[in-house]
Amino acid sequence: MLKWFRSKESAWFWLIVRVYVGWQWLEAGWHKVAGPQPFDATGFLKGAIQKATGDHPAVQPWYAAFLENVALPNVKLFNFLVAYGEVLVGLALILGFASMFAAFMGAFMNLNFMLAGTTSTNPILYTLQVLMLAAGSTAVGYWGVDRWFLPVWRQWVANLLHRSQPATAGTD
User: Where are the domains of the chain?
Assistant: First the structure.
């Protein structure tokens, strides 16, 4: 089963999953980037902070402290990161470019949205992205730009690492 899960034969399945998840991200981000109103997460952040109270808070106090002390004071930066991050993750997944990195960043955003007390499609997208990460680049990136990009990238990194190795003196 695991062999099929990570194989080139399963690439058609991962293509469908990857494009579906990518489309969800692109659509969500596009509304924030090109919508009639500028995207502002201030209300979302304040609502999440309020969900950290009571006997059974939807948001853990440590995460609410992060939102209150880091995200809210820097809301303009977070507005940009969320909106353009969603668009970039969506495009990367649809094109199959840097698929593993895009799936990781998408899962990270979904995790943060869930930690902020939202559900919506976040658990579904998070699960699909974790499964993509488990499948690996052979399956997920086979039908996409990664099929050609990853071998070139790996060779470039190997050459870079080889050049950074100190030369060893020969022994006499």
Answer: 19-39+75-157
Q: How confident is the model at residue 171 (pLDDT cuts 50, 70, 90)?
A: low
- Amino acid of residue 68: E
Distance CA 159, CA 113 (A): 39
Find, among 5, 79, 18, the residue nearest to 43 by Cα. 79
User: Which residues, in sequence order, are CB contacts of 32 under 8 Å at separation 6+?
Assistant: 39, 79, 82, 83, 86, 87
100 vs 87: CA distance, rounded Å: 16
Provide the residue type at 72 as one letter: L
Cα 122 from Cα 103, distance rounded (Å): 13
Q: Tokens at residue 141, please?
A: 């990136």
pLDDT of 25-51, one tens digit each?
999 999 999 989 999 999 999 999 999
Instruction: Report pLDDT digits (tens) over 65-120.
Output: 999 999 999 999 999 999 999 999 999 999 999 999 999 999 999 999 999 999 99
Which residue do the tokens 């007390």 mark? Answer: 117
Q: Quick one: tokens of 88?
A: 């970039």
